[in-house]
Amino acid sequence: MVGAWTTAVAGLMLAAWLPTLLRSRGGPARRARARRRAMHRWGRGMMRATGVRVATEGEAPPEGVLVVSNHLSYLDVAVLGSVVPMVFVSKAGVRRWPFWGFMAALGGTVFVDRSRKRDVIPALASIRLALERGDRVIVFPEATSTKGATILPFKPALLAAAAADGKPVHWMTLTYSTAPGSPPARDRVCWWGDMGFVPHALALFALRRVHCTVLFGDTPVRSTDRKELAAALRSAMLQRFEPVDGGEPPGDSGA
Questions:
Q1: Could you tell me which residues are beta bridge partners of residue 68?
Q2: What mean pLDDT do residues 33-46 have?
Q3: Which secondary structure element, helix H or strand E, spans residue 212, and what is its range?
Q4: Cβ atoms of residues 234 and 142 within 8 Å
């Protein structure tokens, strides 16, 4: 069902794009709008298909801004896409994943190999271009997914453009929980360490219910130094971050 829904949304996105390819002016902007709508529908459908309930706190960031978040699972992309349309920055290896790599590229994902400094420069250019189109661009500066005990120190490389331009960076935090009696979210929802993708995905989708809380930061952070910007963002997020556990939150709203 998950794969069928993703394929269907991709088909709708491509159908919406075809007329824009004939336009000499405004085509890229129209394609970006079509992609944002499609990704939002995809995320909402994924939440229904996987039994995830999402609660939000705070006000979502405006369009055309850079946003950072902690990173817990491949599920984060669908969760955030269900809440507000976003363009994601992902590790380059995702582009080679069968099926999902193509879908990520179709959704406008910016791929980067953080281990190669020369790869960061074109990624920053792609981020700038997406922001100019009005996209919200989200970066996971921990550079890995974790079990949600804390937020790891941030890698500042992808914040360089925001620092150089003096642009504010918005932030959010994610946390997951499972229903009472279910395996804890840190083991079944968070994807970390040497967990294999297929066994983890099968165990995740077998859960009766998953709860996710998305907390939007109330004040963006600004600094002309990328390292100071990274540290300030992490500090602000840690003050509001709720570690992942296995308990069910007091309330939620359907995605």
A1: 139, 171
A2: 82
A3: strand 210-216
A4: no
CA-to-CA distance for 240 and 244, rounded, in angstroms? Answer: 13
> What's the CA dihedral at 245, 248, 250, 255 to 10 degrees?
100
pTM confidence score: 0.83
What is the rounded CA–CA span in Å between residue 33 and residue 212?
27
Helical pair 75-83 and 27-50, crossing angle rounded to 10 deg: 110
pLDDT of amino acid 247: 45
**Tokens for 24?**
């000499």
How far apart (Å, rounded) are the C-alpha atoms in residues 30 and 139?
A: 24
Q: Give me the phi and psi of 44, to 5 degrees please.
A: -65, -40
Nearest-angstrom CA–CA distance, 219 and 245: 27
**What letter would DSSP give residue 221?**
B
Query: Phi/psi at 230 (nearest 5 deg)?
Result: -60, -45
Torsions phi, psi for 89 (to 5 deg): -105, 125
Let me know: does 248 contact 179? Beta carbons within 8 Å: yes
Picking from 119, 248, 124, 232, the residue whose alpha carbon sits closest to that of residue 181 is 248
* Residue 181 CB partners (closer than 8 Å, separation 6+): none
Regarding predicted confidence, which is higher, 21 or 78?
Answer: 78
